[in-house]
Amino acid sequence: MRAAAAAGLGVVALTDHDTFAGWDEAARAAEETGTALVRGVEISCVDARVSVHLLGYLPDPTLPELVAELDRARTSRDARMERMVARMAADGIPVTMDDVRAQTDGPGTTLGRPHLADALVAHGLAADRTAAFRAFLGRGSGYYVGHYAVDAGYAVRLVRAAGGVPVMAHPFAEARGRVVADSVVERLAALGLAALEADHPDHTPEQAAHARDLAAGLGLLVTGSSDFHGAGKPNRIGECTTPPAVLEALLAQADGGIPLVGP
To answer: What are phi and psi of 12, to 5 degrees?
Structure first.
């Protein structure tokens, strides 16, 4: 929140993977910094074996079905991390689960590959997080292990059931791996998807334009996000943004009783 304020942002969204754990701390910081907070979550999803990241803005965090899916995803991520660390240990790579946890903000953090990447950097095994992903953590690596992800269509329905607003993150960023076909986006739109994230650091201009064109044809909103993950990732907070009018349209769809925090 302090970084967002320093970057001159009036509003910032917190969408950690598969957890609401940071909401309270961020809300307190929003009051202190004067930058408004949109509370959200990034849900790890899958459609036809292709990874989908679904942003849920302002959902009710007590909806039992949503809580159960996020709990299942986090448990799977923990087990996956243990398997990845074990594979590295078998090859003599000196990274432990304690090393990975040391890169988190404490209990409640969803363990992900960025934390393992930071542990590799801390051991001097990679120059930065990007290099760690390229050398050790990509999907083609022998150390990569998958994790549980909820069906994307079900996740869209869950976010709507929780009164939140579902947005598909970086839908066409092929640099991150396989992306879904346009027909999948059409089906998710019919289930309640509200918007496509077009402006994103991992989208090429052509991919961003395609997202905009597809959104226009489906009557979806178009959002932007820096997808900021801290200092370990080479991007900056506020690098890509959502226009104020689009934010207002998103907020108008929220019905979970979770308001914007701050001014």
So the answer is: -140, 145
